Amino acid sequence: MMSYHADERGYYGEYGGAFIPEMLYPNCEELRQNYLKIMAEPSFQEEFHQLLKDYVGRPTPLYFAERLSKKYNTKIYLKREDLCHTGAHKVNNTIGQILMAKRLGKHRIIAETGAGQHGVATATVCALMGIECVVYMGEIDIARQAPNVARMKMLGAEVRPATSGSKTLKDATNEAIRDWINNPVDTHYIIGSVVGPHPYPDMVARFQSVISEEVKSQLLEKEGREDPDFVVACVGGGSNAAGAFYHFLDTPEVGIIAVEAAGKGIHSGESAATSALGKVGIIHGSKTLLMQTPDGQITEPYSISAGLDYPGVGPLHAHLYTSGRGEFISITDDEAMKAGLDLCKLEGIIPAIESSHALAIFKDRKFKEDDVVVVNLSGRGDKDLQNYIDYFNL
Amino acid sequence: MNRIKLKLQENKKILSIYFTAGYPSLNDTVKIIQDLEESGVDLIEIGLPFSDPLADGPTIQASSTAALKNGMTTTLLFEQLKDIRKSVSIPLILMGYFNPVLQYGVEEFCQKCEEIGIDGLILPDLPLDVYQEEYETIFKKHGLINVFLITPQTSDARIRAIDDASEGFIYMVSSASTTGTKEGFGTEQATYFERIAGMKLKNPQIVGFGISNAQTFQQATEQAKGAIIGSAFIKHLTQNGVNGIGGFVGQIR
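The joint structure predicted for all components is written out below.
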């Protein structure tokens, strides 16, 4: 049977692999040779799940959103990743990777961050473990995400500005990779999404797969069946989506819906809808779909949501798109903002703008009355308050 | 015979210079190549600028950003180089990241290189296994030598595999670093140079990263066949434009 998971060389169909300069080869190779072995160790699993339970607050609820369901005449469940410690699913991965780093004998952590959510989640686990932490963040993002910069500093991390290129997430990622090249022995790089060279996309997906693992048992309890009819998640790099889809990838009865940020419109020139606008290429060591010029220069995406404006997409998602396994929908800034406010009013939940993109599909994408649709509510909206205030003149 | 291979047969230490095409000005490419040849350089690496050069330090990054801003593209570079073999005979290597080559079309890119008289390619993020499985026959068909990198962290077994896959030379990265980050060599490099020399590889090695002047050139080439200067030459171009290239090269050896 065809599988949508990574093969042993880190390929999802034609996507993935490790397109890295030789300077990174030993780092990635060490990780590649050890990650599955370490993750399979009972002591690792025990520590990982203990921390997810006691520290992160898992399992997160699977909540039947009654009023939202009524409005769209279908059965909508929200997987409440917004209730995780630090406010989003990102911490599932950083907990896993910090334990991995410890077992690999690393005593310095680096990470990239865009809006700062992954940076905060990384700084958090480094504080928890007492490990040195350096977070690279684009100079422009530092200026527009001051509260998260302060959080990282309070947690003891050093925030280094990325001043190269476009000074945003992709450049912060470049800087983190350069740091790793310069510090190959003692440093572990905690990538925040299912991007980058093999084994990162697979490793991060496995750490995030706790989301769909829990959905299965929770749905069994509530609906008497493990599989929903559809699972919906927003996709930037795609880590929350990878976690939400993971245990359903090879169950064709479950529809997979990936929601990308169209920004001001797919063809507005200000968009982050990678599946629609991207072409096959190499970004951050991975072969995938990415937004680029005809000459192969990587372009800067746009979305009102800082967590979705990555010019590429994880190779898993590129494969879901190309193979037709996943249904890809793009949602504009306006649609997302309205859906976010809608959730506040109907369910008393203020979602992250990223997650609002996933919620926005119901306006046009119709489901049957008895369809069970699970939406991964990847994060809470506290970090986006200023955006909501500005947008709605609150 | 390929010009790189011919050059490597000469009984001398090889001085290779890297520059970013389209920098400092868009149309400096041909002039820089001609002046470098005239100054007695042995090999030239023409950098194809990329938006996200993740193996490069600040100097080469800045030159790439400037070159792209100046309007450099793959197509334009090929256009600038189309008559280059009428004026120079020095071995020419194109160095860049894999994505722009992929977008141009690997086959078309190699075809164009052959037409122009390019002798080899250095694409640091095109991995060994992918090259061998998908692209080696295309490179060879067009007479292009593919140059692989090794670093102090590369295992002996992998160095052997890279040596087997190479023809021409091995690009020996002097330290665990991005380009232009570290100046000079310490005991770590001495040990590494010693270790590689002791392996008696079939391909000669040319050392890159950390070479900026006569002293470091001398140190790097004590055991290796040659050395590459990149960031230091870019800095020279930043300060002097295309003037005084002969003087810069003259200081090295």
